[in-house]
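W.,

You were right to be curious about this one. When I first looked at the sequence I had no strong expectations either way, so I just let the prediction run and decided to look at it fresh. Below is the sequence, 58 residues in total, followed by the output.
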Amino acid sequence: MDLYTGLTAFAVAFVVLAAVASVVALGVVGELLVRNRRVRLARHQTIRAYYRGLALSH
C-alpha cells in the first residue's frame, strides 16, 4: 500500500508540474506573438513568413 501512495503522489505532482509548464509556455508564446505584431504588420508579412525569417536569421 505504501508503494502506491508514493506513486500516486508522484503522478499527481507530475501532472500539476506539466499543467503549470503548459500554461507558462502558452503565455510565453502569446506574449511573443503580441509583442512582434506591430513589426510584422508594418512589413505586411504573415505570421509564418515573419517567424521563418526570424528563425533563419539566427
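Here's what jumped out at me. The two ends are 53 Å apart (CA to CA). And, maybe more interesting for your project: Helices lie at 2-35, 37-42, 47-56.

Coffee later to discuss?

I.
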